[in-house]
C-alpha cells in the first residue's frame, strides 16, 4: 500500500473516566507516527465567568474547575485575592488549608494509581486503591462535610475547624493508609507483569522535560527538581516543609514511584501539622471591594504547578482571572512522547501525566485539513490484510 | 534572598530590551518589551537557563485604551519575571516563541482564540478550546464580548 | 421486527426483555463538560465500597451496548453534538440519568459563554440526581428509581431510603425489589416458563 497515513481518532467519549479529549494518532502498523489533540469538550468559559461574578461567588466557581483538585484551585484563588486585599489568613486557617491540601493529594494520587493500573489492565490494583481511597474520602467528609468539592476555603480563611476528635480520626486513617501505601510501592516497583507495562515506556529525559516545561510529578519522575511547595513555599510549607521526591528514570515506572512515594511525605506533613496546629481564629476580615492591582499565585496541585493571575479593579469582582492548570504543559509532552510507541501503550502514556484517558470511541470518519476520508470497516479490514501480507 | 538574586539576574539579562521595569510585588519583576523584541528577550532568559515559561496571560484593558496586552510569565524558583507586550487593538500581533520554547504552542493557541492576538509564525493555528461552530472574529475574553454575539 | 408472534408470545417476550433489562442494566457514562467531581463519584460506585456490579449494573464503553446513559456536567457547545450522537447510537429503549447540579441546570456554570445548560436541553432525561456532586448512594438511588420506573411503578410512592451504615442498603439492592418485593422476579420467570 502507498504511504497513506492511517489515522485513529480516539475520544471524546470513553468508557471509564473523566475528561473528554479528542486525540488523533497517525499510525504505521501499530506504531504511532504523529499525534494531535483537540481539547475543549469541557471548556466552560470559567475565566470569563469569574469576571462577571464577585470574588465570593468566583471562589465557588473556580473550585469547580476540577472536582479532583478543587481545594488547590480555591486555595490559589484565595491566596491571590487575600494578597490583593493585603490580608493574611490566620495561622490556624493556613494549617487547615495545608492539611486539606495534602489529604486531597492523597486522594488524587490514590485515584491516579488506580486509574493508571486500570489502563494497564491491572484492575485488581484499581479496586484496591479505590477501596483504600474511601478512607481519605471519609476524612475529608469528616472535616468539611462533603466528599468532593469540599469548599473548605473562604476568602480570608477556612470555614471548618479540626477538633481533637477529627485529629484522632485522621491519625488512625493515615496509619492504615501508610501501611497500604507500602504495599503499593512494592507492587509498582516489583510486580513483573506490571513492570512490563511501565518500565522503559514513555521515557522522557531530563532535557526533554525541561524543554517542554512539564510540571509536577511528571517532571519529578524525569529528575527535574520542580515543586512549588519547596521552590516558593506558601501556606505553612516553609515551617512544615515536604521533602522533594524525585526519580531519574523518566519512564512510567518512575511516574508511579514518584506519586506513591509522595504519599509518605503527605502523611508525614499532615501528622506534623496536626501535632502543631496553631491556635486562633479561622478567618480574617476581607474587604468587599479590592483596590486595583495584579497578583500571581502559584500552588502545587496534585498534578503539578497551578498558576493563577488575578487582576482587581477596585470593584467587588475581578478584572481578569487567568488559570493555567498543570495538565496543559504536560499534555504537550504526551503528544511528543507517544510518537514511536505502540498504540497500545498510548493510554498508559496518557495516564502517566494524569489526565487519565482510556479511550475507545473509534469511528471510521477521519477529518483532516478539510478533506474527509471515509473508511468502511471492510476497507479497514482489507487494509489490514494488505499491510501484513 | 536567593529570589532577589534571581530577579536581579533576570533584570540584567533583559536590560537591552526593557522599555520599563517595575516590581509590582515582592518576588516579581515586570518588564515591558516591544513586540519585536519579545523573541530576543525570551531567548536571553532561556539561553541563560533562567527558569521556564509558566503561562501566557492575555489582558484586555478595555476599549478606550486601544491596546491589548500579552503577559509572558517565567518562573525560576519563587521568582517570577513577566514580559509585558502591548499591541494595538486594531492590529494585534506578537511573534511566536516556538523557536525558543518548543512547548509554547498550546499557550499561543489559547491566546489566539481567546483574545484574537495573532501569533505570527506559530505552527498550529487550529482551535484548541472553542467549539468548531464558534463564529470567527469573536473573542470571548475581550471586554467587549457579549453573549448575543453568539446568536441563537 | 420481522418475526411475527401471536399476542401471548409477544407479551411473554416483552416481559422477558423487561426482566433482563431490570436485572442487569448496562450503562454508559458521558461527561459533557463536568468538573470531574461527578465522574469520580460515578466511578466510586463501581469500586469495592459501593460495588454496583454485584447488582448487575455494568458500566461499559460502547453506546451500542448500553441501556442507560449516565450524563454528568453542563452541556458545552463543543460536546453537544457528541452527546446527541452517543444518544442516537444507543439501541431502543434507552434511558438517561442526569447526575449532578450541572447536568440538571448548568449549576455553577450557568451563564458562562460555552454552556448551553443542563442535559435536558439536548436530550430527554428520565431521572435527575441533584447534588454537587451527589453521593454515590444518591447515584445508586437514581438507578434504582429508574428501574422502578421501568417496571411501570411510580417510585415516588415508595421512597427508597438509604442508610449507608446499615445493611439496609445492600438488602434493597441485592435483588429485593423496593417496589414489589423480592418475589417479583420469580413470578416473572414462572410466567415465561
Ligand atoms: S455538579 Fe458539581 S461536582 Fe458535578 S460536575 Fe457540576 S460542579 Fe462538578
* Integer tally of domains of chain A: 1
Kindly state the number of beta strands of chain A. 10
What string, H for helix and E for strand, traces the elements of chain C in order? HEHEEEHEHEEHHH
Radius of gyration of chain A: 22 Å
Order of helices and strands of chain A: EEEHHHHHEEHHHHHHEEEHHEEH
Q: Looking at the chains present, what oligomeric state does this protein adopt? A: heterotrimer
Structure classification of chain C: alpha/beta
Amino- and carboxy-terminal Cα gap of chain A? 10 Å
Low-confidence stretches of chain A: 14-19, 356-380
- Indicate the CATH architecture of chain A: Orthogonal Bundle
Shape of chain A: globular
Please give the CATH class of chain A: Mainly Alpha
List segments of chain C where confidence is low: pLDDT < 50 over at least 5 consecutive residues. 153-193
Task: Give the overall average pLDDT of chain C.
Answer: 74
Tell me the CATH topology of chain A: Cytochrome-c3 Hydrogenase, chain B
The overall number of domains of chain C is 1
Task: Write out the strand line-up for the largest beta sheet of chain A, numbering strands in chain order.
Answer: 1-2-3
Q: How does the major sheet of chain A shape up?
A: 3 strands, antiparallel
- Please count the helical segments of chain C: 7
Average pLDDT for all residues of chain A: 78
Task: Describe, in short, the structure shown.
The complex is a heterotrimer of chains A (389), B (152) and C (193). With 389 residues, chain A is an alpha+beta fold.
Structure commentary:
- The complex is a heterotrimer of chains A (389), B (152) and C (193).
- Chain A contains 14 helices and ten strands.
- Chain A has one domain (46-325): Cytochrome-c3 Hydrogenase, chain B, CATH 1.10.645.
- In chain A, strand 4 (153-154) and strand 5 form a beta hairpin.
- Chain A is α+β, with helices and mostly antiparallel strands.
- A three-stranded antiparallel β-sheet of chain A has the order 1-2-3.
- Helix content of chain A is 48%, strand content 15%.
- Chain B has 152 residues and is α/β, with parallel strands linked by helices.
- Chain B has a single domain, classed as NADH:ubiquinone oxidoreductase Nqo5 subunit (Beta Polymerase, domain 2, 2-Layer Sandwich), CATH 3.30.460.
- Chain B contains three helices and seven strands; from the N terminus they run H-E-E-H-E-E-E-E-H-E.
- Chain B has helices spanning 2-14, 38-47, 105-115; strands at residues 20-22, 28-33, 52-59, 67-76, 79-88, 93-95, 118-120.
- In chain B, strand 1 (20-22) and strand 2 form a beta hairpin.
- The longest helix of chain B has 13 residues, at 2-14.
- Classes of the chains: A alpha+beta (389), B alpha/beta (152), C alpha/beta (193).
- The A-C interface holds A 12-20, 40-46, 48-49, 52, 60-61, 64-68, 70, 111, 114, 126-127, 130-131, 133-134, 137, 147-149, 360-361 and C 28-41, 43-44, 47-49, 59-63, 73-74, 76, 78-79, 82, 86, 107-109, 111-115, 132-133, 135.
- Iron/sulfur cluster (SF4) sits between chains C (34-35, 37-38, 72-73, 100-102, 107-108, 132-133) and A (64, 67, 148-149).
